[in-house]
Structure formats: C-alpha cells, structure tokens
Fold this sequence. Notes:
This protein has about 280 residues and is an alpha/beta fold. About 40% of the residues lie in helices and about 15% in strands. α4 links the parallel β4 (about 85-90) and β5. α3 (about 65-80) packs parallel to α4, α4 packs parallel to α5 (about 160-180) and α5 crosses α8 (about 255-270).
Amino acid sequence: MHKQWxxxxxxxxxxxxxxxxxxxxxxxxxxxxARDQAxxxxxxxxxxxxxxxxxxxxxxESQSETRAVAKxxxxxxxxxxxxxxxxxxxxxxxxxxxxxxxxxxxxQFAVNHLAGFLFAHYFIDMLNxxxxxxxxxxxxxxxxxxxxxxxxxxxxxxxxAYKQSKLCNVMTAISLNERLKNRNIKCYAVDPxxxxxxxxxxxTGGIVKLFWNAxxxxxxxxxxxxxxxxxxxxxxxAGVYFKNSSPKKYNREADKRDQRxxxxxxxxxxxxxxxxxxx
Length: 279
C-alpha cells in the first residue's frame, strides 16, 4: 500500500505538534511545516520518527516562501510515491501591533488566512478524496468582514483582525467544499477551544501577553483538540465547523454567498492565483 501522508503547518508546538503526535500514533506519515529546522530535527529525534516524519521550513507570512515550500513538498511526495490524504492548515499567530508581511499584507490576515488559502491551492491536484482542515476559533462568531479596511490599516484593532481572520477560515472551508465536490475533497474548520499554548504570548506584549498567560492556564492541553483533527481525517463526516469531534453552529455571516465569493476573489487576487486552473 502507498504511504498515507498528511501535511501539518505550524507543526513544532502547540496544537500542530499534538496533531503530529496523534497521526504518528495511528501510523500515518507526516510532513510538518515549521519555522525552525533545529527545533524540527529535535522533535524527529525525540519522537524516534525519522522514517515517518519529515519537516520543511518556511515563514508562511511570505508568499514566496510559501510557494517554495509547497513546491519542495510536492517534489518530495512525487518521488516518494505516497498518497497525500490531508492538508491541515494549522499555522496561526496573534499580533497586538500593526505589522505587515514582505508582501505588504497585515500579518494576522496573511498568516491565519492567506497562507492556508494559498497552500490549499497548491495541493488540490494531489488531494483527490482527501481532506483540508483549517484551524479557526470560536472568536469568529459575531464578526463581519471589514471591507472598508480589511487590513485594519487606518485603525488597528488586533482582536478584530484576529477574529476576522478566523471567520475567513470558515468562509474558505465552505467555499472550497462547493468547488471541490467533483474531487471528493472535504473541507473543515475546527474550533479548538481554549488551549494552553503560547500563541497569545509569542508576538505580543504588555497587557495582551499578561492576559493570555493568565487565561491559558484554564485551557485544555493541545492533545484534546488534536483528537478532532484526527476524527475529521478518518471519518469525513457531514458538516463544516467542528469542536470536540462534533459539528457546531458557526457565524451565519459565512453562509452569505456574496460575502464568501467576494472574499474568495479578493484572496485569489492577493495571492496571485486562480483556483479555476486547478479545480
């Protein structure tokens, strides 16, 4: 049988690393995307998984690096002759100050939304009958896309920028489900809940960092939400938005087709891609 490969972004800490560990326990082969190769190498050694775990490095806020790592992974999979069965777009960030990426886009919008949108485009041709999963958040509820200033350049509101990026994840999952029916690719967005990770303290400071360090102590360990990703990959259930391996209600703003199509078209433009070329 061909090896069954799963790609996981943000795969050296928090939820991403927990997903990697769960996948290895089930004998899947895993490709992790990380920022730090030394850290990745130490994880491979600790997990004793040289035969079933490979890491590629890239800074996903950079579209040129995202494209380069996607190409490198595709070349690797083509030579391996394994089957890609899932793409888990888990990489994410929180920023409490306005920052732009090398491409000129607001940092949270670029990492939390555009990176996964671009990555999915590159692997559709290898994912027939597979799964694409985005890490979203309950915080997307009661949010709308800020079309007047989608990058929050005029007045940066970090929490709103984060919530908007997570709404984009849900809208993208729905849009891709509509487009990928003929390939039998199922797309999901996951609400991991409150999880004890470092996401709120890596690129923040002051009161935001203090608040997160206090709040995260009440969160689940990363292995808890990791179970949901494994459940979706193995079962491909009906539904689009999941928490604790169960379908949940999501922001009905995501059901507005005109809003989804507007976001999809803008995302294609910002990434310089056309999904019509690969679907």
